[in-house]
Recover the amino acids of this structure.
């Protein structure tokens, strides 16, 4: 499994959100689900959420993602 964590955002994200993302990353590292090969985090900044989401999905698929998790 190649998990891609996709985060569409504007110019900034809230600190509490990023603390949660860091905790998720740490949990995946310490207790990986069976079959997890890689975790990749990608952020796309833009004012149009639909366009950012589309870009993120295209990029993840091109890079070989098998699972996607959107965090907004």
């Amino acid at each position: 499994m190649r998990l891609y964590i996709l985060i569409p955002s504007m110019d900034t994200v809230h600190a509490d959100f990023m603390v949660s993302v860091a905790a998720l990353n740490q949990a995946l590292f310490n207790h990986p689900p069976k079959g997890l090969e890689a975790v990749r985090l990608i952020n796309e900044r833009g004012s149009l959420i639909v366009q950012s989401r589309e870009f993120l999905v295209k990029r993840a698929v091109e890079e070989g993602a098998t699972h996607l998790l959107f965090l907004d």
User: Anything to note?
Assistant: The chain has a mean pLDDT of 95. The helical segments are 15-30, 49-62.
